[in-house]
Amino acid sequence: MSVRPRVRCVEVKGVAGQASASGVRLTSGELTSARQRRSDYWLYVVDNCVNGEGTLFGHWRDPAGVFAESFENMTEYRLAGSVLSAAREHQGEGS
Q: Is residue 76 left, alpha or beta, with left meaning phi > 0 and alpha meaning psi from -120 to 50?
């Protein structure tokens, strides 16, 4: 009996400054993939990427579910920095 490995899809968004101020943008294709893959899709957000080095701001499994009510519908879908900050704090409480 062979076991199929589980696939994890990861989207990494880096910002030059602070994600809590600027937020991040996802394309419609990225959001569609997140909605289709649900718990197999992760969003990682990295601060201070301007010099090629960054700091992990936070990571979320199933961002389409976690942030379902927070996406601003435009050509891209934006998560405000304050929403990312609140989710990071909430995530820390549940860990």
A: beta
Q: What's the predicted TM-score (pTM) here?
A: 0.73
The CA radius of gyration of the chain, in Å to the nearest whole number, is 14
pLDDT in tens, 27-61: 888 999 999 999 999 999 999 998 888 999 999 99
What b/e sequence results for 76-85 when a residue is b if at least 16 CB atoms lie within 10 Å of its CB, and e otherwise? ebbbbbebbb
H helix or E strand, kind and range, residue 93:
helix 81-94
